[in-house]
What does this fold into?
Amino acid sequence: MKRASNPESQSFVVDHALRQTSRKRPDMRKMPIRKAFTLLEPGPVVLVTTRDGGKNNVMTISWTMVTDFTPRFAMTTGPWNHSYAALRKTRECVLSIPTVDLLDQVVGAGTCSGSDTDKFEKLGLTPVKAEKVRPPLIRECLANIECKVIDIIPKHNILILKAVAVHVDRSRREKRTLHAVGDGTFVADGRRLNRRKRMRSKIPDGV
Amino acid sequence: MKRASNPESQSFVVDHALRQTSRKRPDMRKMPIRKAFTLLEPGPVVLVTTRDGGKNNVMTISWTMVTDFTPRFAMTTGPWNHSYAALRKTRECVLSIPTVDLLDQVVGAGTCSGSDTDKFEKLGLTPVKAEKVRPPLIRECLANIECKVIDIIPKHNILILKAVAVHVDRSRREKRTLHAVGDGTFVADGRRLNRRKRMRSKIPDGV
It folds into this structure.
């Protein structure tokens, strides 16, 4: 297998296969539900999995927002996404959090359609059975949040999600998430700055 | 003026004053409205200014989401924030985007209340007259998005905002924004990764 010299070429499946053989086996552990919002609050790009008619699908989304610590999340999507029909019908999804090494999977999942493509196979992503919902977790991702769709606001194309189980891969060394700018560029996480003491009054119990 | 030795101490006003004297004068330029979503899509923490009864206020918010390229944004807030009454009444705000050098202002604005504090004065932030709304821009921030509140979804504490003018400080060298984790830590922007060619089909015209 050769690496493409052009970093913009369609080489992501090959690159991914190379990476996977050298990566340790994931060690997915449950995370307390009350901490799930800390996975989405920084605003990372997410992969959203759905399952309809026995078929898995995955799409890339940046338009998510925490709306409550319980935790509840808002997500903007609509008929322009193939996954929307499955979300409306099954009322379940998984929000998977990719890291910088999965950038090309993120771009790949965002630029082809589940209507004519098995994206898991094309992108070399591995579906793993979830605990409380039918859509799969993604084995390669840092974290997976199993969600139920608890409300839909058609006027604004907003879905309200409630997390029902959360899994984090404790074996990963790469934890930097990605932030889409929307112009085709992405920003990786940089330095972490600690203000826990000053923020104490605003941090929910147990977080 | 001495610097505090403890980085968690309440020294942000002093630090800020020191920084301001050495920073160049801002060069705020208009940004085309169609590009405004690229300021919020990466998920940065924002400062939200309001103005009610002739009094400016500012709060720190992480819970925002792009909902449309026009651009429209969703923001979660409610009666627990002092600014909520002004937002409901005046239906206007400015979303200001701070950078890493403003971390202590971000923490400060998030841990005191406009009910008993003039936060602009306390934090050394400079209000600047906006073009189309009454709440002020913040001179020290990288960007300011003037917004109208076009809808409120009380059931989920979500406000829908429409951008009406956008300003970006072109003189700034520091452009890294901050991402709140929600546990009292923040992540600064790191490396930027370019996938514009592959993403072309998903980038709106002129972005």
